[in-house]
Amino acid sequence: MAQPPSWQQGLRGDAPERYTVVRGDTLWDISGRFLHHPWQWPEVWQVNPQIRNPHLIYPGDVIYLYDCNGRPCLGLERGQGEVRLSPEVRRIPPREAIEPIPLEAVQHFLRDHRVIDDPEALEELAYVVAGDDRRLISGAGDRLYARGHLERGPRYGIYRIGERYTDAATGELLGLELESVGQARLERQEGDIAVLEALSASQEIRNNDIVLPLEGRELTRDFMPRAPDEAVDGQILAVPGGVRFIGRLQVVALDRGRRDGLAPGHVLQVEQLGERVSDPRTGETLRLPGTEAGLVMVFRPYRKMSYGLVMRATRTLAVGDRVHSPAAGVAHR
Questions:
Q1: DSSP H/E element including 32
Q2: pLDDT tier for residue 2 given thresholds of 50, 70 and 90
């Protein structure tokens, strides 16, 4: 763990001594009430080891500030979780832990997008070859025929091939994005032909669309914002949906992933490259220093790339902007 921040540098001047968590708060919101840099939360977070699930925070809990060997620490007091009414005990229904980030900003995205780490494996995946009555386009309620072996039981997603993500410097293929167009269930398998019923369709289902078991899409709700354990240096690859300019709470694709040490909750700083100018004396082309422009939190890392959510944008971000491990000394904006 990194060195905890000092009272003067890490703590906001208007940080409260105590804060009662309310419904609608996120861990990022609470971090920002106390700290200049929300990713430093784990460095000041101290909890009673007797508290069950200490990393889960609920509405009604109290976060308090105290001195911890000359540095600020944050502690947790559980809110009222049980009311005693003699001679019986009435338990309040289980509370829902606060979210680490505004998950509604990414849940819809995760339902419609996934990445294949090894696009070369695409040829081995099942794919639609026909609709009922030789239709080229199908929808909910229609019968579909796919080539490939599918296991009976789970629901299947129908996907269309989207963007191919490549490393701008090396040309390495980082992943292939698949966009959901519907869901189906397996009726039967005859040889290498699977007969499916389309259960839903957000777009027309077409021949050559990919058939895959639905992946687990639930996000962990107990991760904390934190800096990566290893130095990370990459860039924004794309904005799914084709948006050119990027603002707060937009999803971005990054060219770094699990193999680079990224995990859910890791925060990266976004830096916009400085302009290219011509030296008035020598005529040389110079690159001016970059400008810190925002923060991105990783929520779904794949092996070679990741999806992240823009948590702060002091400028309009763009594809190609650099992302790197945050520096604690960067001023809060």
A1: helix 27-34
A2: low
User: What is the predicted pLDDT for the residue at 214?
Assistant: 83
The confidence score (pLDDT) of residue 327 equals: 78
Range of the domain at 272: 233-324
Task: Please give the full DSSP string across 83-103, using - where no structure is assigned.
Answer: EEETTEEEEPPPPPPPBSS-T
pTM score of the predicted model: 0.82
pLDDT at 245: 76
216 pLDDT higher than 90: no
Compute the residue count for the chain. 333
pLDDT digits (tens, 9 = 90+) for 121-137: 788 899 999 987 666 56
Helix (H) or strand (E) holding 27: helix 27-34
Model confidence over 290-314: pLDDT tens digits? 899 999 999 999 999 999 999 999 9
Q: Which residues pair with residue 95 across a beta bridge?
A: none
CB-CB contact of 234 with 319 (8 Å): no
* Residue 280: per-residue pLDDT: 92
Contact 76, 63 (CB under 8 A): yes
CA-angle at 236, arms to 234 and 240, nearest 5°: 145
Average pLDDT over residues 244-254: 89
H-state helical runs in 41-154: 41-44, 104-112
Q: Considering the domain boundaries, does residue 37 fall inside one? A: yes
Task: Give the single-character DSSP code of 244.
Answer: S
The CA distance from 144 to 134, in Å, is 10
User: What is the phi/psi pair of residue 210, to 5°?
Assistant: -85, 145
Partner residues linked to 99 by β-bridges: 26
113 and 199 fall within a common domain: yes
Q: What is the DSSP annotation of 254-284?
A: ES--GGGT--TTBEEEEEEPPPEEE-TTT--
> Which amino acid appears at position 235 of this protein?
Q
Find residue 251's DSSP bridge partners: 309
CATH code of the domain covering residue 246: 2.40.10.410
